[in-house]
Specification:
alpha/beta, eight-stranded mixed sheet
Length: 212
Amino acid sequence: MKKDKNNKNFWNRYAKIYDIEIDRFNRSAYEEMYRLISGTLKKEMKVLEIATGTGLIAVNIADSVQSIEATDFSPQMIGTAMKKRAPGNVHFSVEDATALSFLDQTFDAVIISNALHIMPDPGVVLNNIRRVLKPNGLLIAPTFSHGHLKDSTWKLNAFLLKMIGFETYSKWKPEEYVDFINQSGFSVQTWKVLKAAFPLVYLEAKLQEQPC
Protein backbone atom coordinates (compact mmCIF):
# COMPACT_ATOMS: atom_id res chain seq x y z
CA MET A 1 0.00 0.00 0.00
CA LYS A 2 1.40 3.39 -0.98
CA LYS A 3 2.15 5.66 1.97
CA ASP A 4 0.04 8.84 2.10
CA LYS A 5 3.01 11.14 2.65
CA ASN A 6 1.07 14.38 2.77
CA ASN A 7 -1.82 13.07 4.94
CA LYS A 8 -4.43 14.07 2.36
CA ASN A 9 -6.61 11.01 3.02
CA PHE A 10 -6.63 11.81 6.73
CA TRP A 11 -7.68 15.42 6.19
CA ASN A 12 -10.36 14.48 3.67
CA ARG A 13 -11.88 12.14 6.26
CA TYR A 14 -11.41 14.63 9.09
CA ALA A 15 -13.21 17.50 7.35
CA LYS A 16 -16.66 16.60 8.66
CA ILE A 17 -15.58 16.80 12.33
CA TYR A 18 -12.85 19.44 12.04
CA ASP A 19 -14.87 22.32 13.50
CA ILE A 20 -16.11 20.15 16.37
CA GLU A 21 -12.57 19.14 17.31
CA ILE A 22 -11.22 22.69 17.13
CA ASP A 23 -14.06 23.92 19.33
CA ARG A 24 -13.51 21.07 21.80
CA PHE A 25 -9.74 21.33 22.25
CA ASN A 26 -8.56 24.73 21.00
CA ARG A 27 -11.44 27.22 21.13
CA SER A 28 -9.74 29.80 23.36
CA ALA A 29 -6.48 29.63 21.36
CA TYR A 30 -8.32 30.14 18.08
CA GLU A 31 -10.30 33.05 19.49
CA GLU A 32 -7.00 34.62 20.56
CA MET A 33 -5.57 34.03 17.08
CA TYR A 34 -8.58 35.73 15.47
CA ARG A 35 -7.97 38.75 17.70
CA LEU A 36 -4.22 38.90 17.06
CA ILE A 37 -4.52 38.39 13.30
CA SER A 38 -7.32 40.95 12.92
CA GLY A 39 -5.28 43.43 14.93
CA THR A 40 -2.24 43.25 12.66
CA LEU A 41 -3.91 43.12 9.22
CA LYS A 42 -5.12 46.24 7.41
CA LYS A 43 -8.32 46.94 5.52
CA GLU A 44 -6.57 47.42 2.15
CA MET A 45 -4.74 44.07 2.28
CA LYS A 46 -5.17 41.18 -0.12
CA VAL A 47 -4.57 38.02 1.89
CA LEU A 48 -3.81 34.41 1.04
CA GLU A 49 -4.55 31.72 3.59
CA ILE A 50 -2.87 28.34 3.10
CA ALA A 51 -4.28 25.27 4.89
CA THR A 52 -7.52 27.06 5.69
CA GLY A 53 -9.23 23.78 6.59
CA THR A 54 -12.92 24.59 6.89
CA GLY A 55 -12.27 28.32 6.74
CA LEU A 56 -12.50 29.16 10.43
CA ILE A 57 -9.80 31.83 10.38
CA ALA A 58 -10.81 33.31 7.03
CA VAL A 59 -14.44 33.75 8.07
CA ASN A 60 -13.51 35.30 11.41
CA ILE A 61 -11.00 37.86 10.11
CA ALA A 62 -12.66 38.82 6.82
CA ASP A 63 -13.88 42.17 8.13
CA SER A 64 -10.27 43.27 8.69
CA VAL A 65 -9.06 42.98 5.07
CA GLN A 66 -9.96 43.71 1.46
CA SER A 67 -10.05 40.07 0.35
CA ILE A 68 -8.99 36.57 1.37
CA GLU A 69 -8.13 33.70 -0.96
CA ALA A 70 -8.60 30.77 1.45
CA THR A 71 -6.99 27.57 0.17
CA ASP A 72 -6.44 23.97 1.20
CA PHE A 73 -5.12 20.88 -0.53
CA SER A 74 -8.07 18.81 0.73
CA PRO A 75 -11.14 19.01 -1.55
CA GLN A 76 -13.34 17.83 1.32
CA MET A 77 -12.09 20.61 3.59
CA ILE A 78 -12.83 23.21 0.93
CA GLY A 79 -16.20 21.62 0.23
CA THR A 80 -17.09 21.94 3.91
CA ALA A 81 -15.84 25.55 3.99
CA MET A 82 -17.96 26.50 0.97
CA LYS A 83 -21.12 25.38 2.78
CA LYS A 84 -20.61 28.11 5.38
CA ARG A 85 -22.12 31.58 5.16
CA ALA A 86 -18.82 33.30 4.47
CA PRO A 87 -18.42 37.05 3.89
CA GLY A 88 -18.39 38.12 0.26
CA ASN A 89 -14.68 38.98 0.27
CA VAL A 90 -13.69 35.36 1.05
CA HIS A 91 -13.02 32.96 -1.83
CA PHE A 92 -12.28 29.27 -1.23
CA SER A 93 -10.16 27.14 -3.57
CA VAL A 94 -8.12 23.95 -3.67
CA GLU A 95 -4.37 24.67 -3.86
CA ASP A 96 -1.17 22.72 -3.29
CA ALA A 97 1.02 24.75 -0.91
CA THR A 98 4.16 23.41 -2.58
CA ALA A 99 3.06 24.58 -6.05
CA LEU A 100 0.84 27.65 -5.65
CA SER A 101 -0.83 28.77 -8.88
CA PHE A 102 -0.85 32.50 -8.04
CA LEU A 103 1.35 35.07 -9.77
CA ASP A 104 4.45 36.51 -8.14
CA GLN A 105 3.94 39.33 -5.62
CA THR A 106 0.16 38.98 -5.51
CA PHE A 107 -0.58 39.20 -1.78
CA ASP A 108 0.10 41.68 1.01
CA ALA A 109 -0.06 38.94 3.65
CA VAL A 110 -0.06 35.15 3.85
CA ILE A 111 -1.54 33.17 6.74
CA ILE A 112 -0.60 29.55 7.32
CA SER A 113 -1.92 28.30 10.64
CA ASN A 114 -1.03 25.04 12.40
CA ALA A 115 0.23 23.44 9.21
CA LEU A 116 3.99 23.81 8.67
CA HIS A 117 4.79 21.16 11.28
CA ILE A 118 2.66 18.56 9.46
CA MET A 119 3.96 19.31 5.98
CA PRO A 120 6.73 17.04 4.65
CA ASP A 121 8.55 19.96 2.96
CA PRO A 122 7.94 23.16 4.96
CA GLY A 123 10.91 24.87 3.31
CA VAL A 124 9.36 24.41 -0.13
CA VAL A 125 6.09 25.86 1.17
CA LEU A 126 7.88 28.92 2.54
CA ASN A 127 9.63 29.35 -0.82
CA ASN A 128 6.21 29.49 -2.48
CA ILE A 129 4.96 31.95 0.11
CA ARG A 130 7.93 34.25 -0.50
CA ARG A 131 7.22 34.18 -4.21
CA VAL A 132 3.57 35.26 -3.93
CA LEU A 133 4.16 37.90 -1.25
CA LYS A 134 4.66 41.53 -2.21
CA PRO A 135 7.90 43.23 -1.07
CA ASN A 136 7.88 43.68 2.71
CA GLY A 137 4.88 41.35 2.83
CA LEU A 138 3.59 39.84 6.06
CA LEU A 139 3.67 36.17 7.07
CA ILE A 140 1.40 35.04 9.91
CA ALA A 141 2.29 31.46 10.80
CA PRO A 142 0.95 30.08 14.09
CA THR A 143 2.14 26.50 14.56
CA PHE A 144 1.84 23.85 17.27
CA SER A 145 5.17 23.24 19.03
CA HIS A 146 5.97 19.70 20.13
CA GLY A 147 9.75 19.48 20.40
CA HIS A 148 9.98 20.18 24.12
CA LEU A 149 7.19 17.78 25.12
CA LYS A 150 8.70 14.61 26.55
CA ASP A 151 6.11 13.17 28.92
CA SER A 152 4.39 9.84 28.38
CA THR A 153 0.97 11.41 27.70
CA TRP A 154 2.32 13.33 24.72
CA LYS A 155 4.12 10.23 23.38
CA LEU A 156 0.91 8.21 23.63
CA ASN A 157 -1.12 10.92 21.89
CA ALA A 158 1.46 11.17 19.10
CA PHE A 159 1.43 7.39 18.64
CA LEU A 160 -2.38 7.23 18.48
CA LEU A 161 -2.54 10.12 15.99
CA LYS A 162 0.01 8.40 13.77
CA MET A 163 -2.01 5.19 13.86
CA ILE A 164 -5.05 6.94 12.39
CA GLY A 165 -3.01 8.61 9.65
CA PHE A 166 -1.88 11.90 11.22
CA GLU A 167 1.85 12.48 10.80
CA THR A 168 3.97 15.24 12.37
CA TYR A 169 7.10 15.83 10.31
CA SER A 170 8.69 18.74 12.22
CA LYS A 171 8.81 18.66 16.02
CA TRP A 172 10.17 22.12 16.77
CA LYS A 173 10.69 23.66 20.16
CA PRO A 174 9.27 27.23 20.15
CA GLU A 175 12.70 28.83 19.76
CA GLU A 176 13.65 26.34 17.03
CA TYR A 177 10.54 27.25 15.08
CA VAL A 178 11.34 30.96 15.32
CA ASP A 179 14.88 30.24 14.09
CA PHE A 180 13.51 28.18 11.19
CA ILE A 181 11.35 31.07 10.01
CA ASN A 182 14.22 33.55 10.39
CA GLN A 183 16.45 31.29 8.29
CA SER A 184 13.83 30.89 5.55
CA GLY A 185 13.84 34.39 4.09
CA PHE A 186 11.74 36.10 6.76
CA SER A 187 12.41 38.34 9.73
CA VAL A 188 10.30 37.45 12.78
CA GLN A 189 8.67 40.59 14.21
CA THR A 190 6.82 39.08 17.15
CA TRP A 191 5.93 35.71 18.62
CA LYS A 192 4.28 34.27 21.70
CA VAL A 193 3.14 30.87 22.96
CA LEU A 194 -0.62 30.43 23.28
CA LYS A 195 -2.21 27.82 25.52
CA ALA A 196 -3.95 25.12 23.48
CA ALA A 197 -4.22 21.34 23.34
CA PHE A 198 -0.50 21.54 22.52
CA PRO A 199 1.57 24.73 22.95
CA LEU A 200 0.87 26.97 19.96
CA VAL A 201 3.49 29.44 18.75
CA TYR A 202 1.79 32.52 17.29
CA LEU A 203 4.27 34.22 14.96
CA GLU A 204 4.36 37.25 12.65
CA ALA A 205 7.26 37.87 10.24
CA LYS A 206 8.13 40.21 7.40
CA LEU A 207 9.56 39.17 4.07
CA GLN A 208 13.28 39.93 4.03
CA GLU A 209 14.52 42.30 1.37
CA GLN A 210 16.41 40.52 -1.37
CA PRO A 211 19.91 41.79 -2.25
CA CYS A 212 20.15 43.62 -5.54
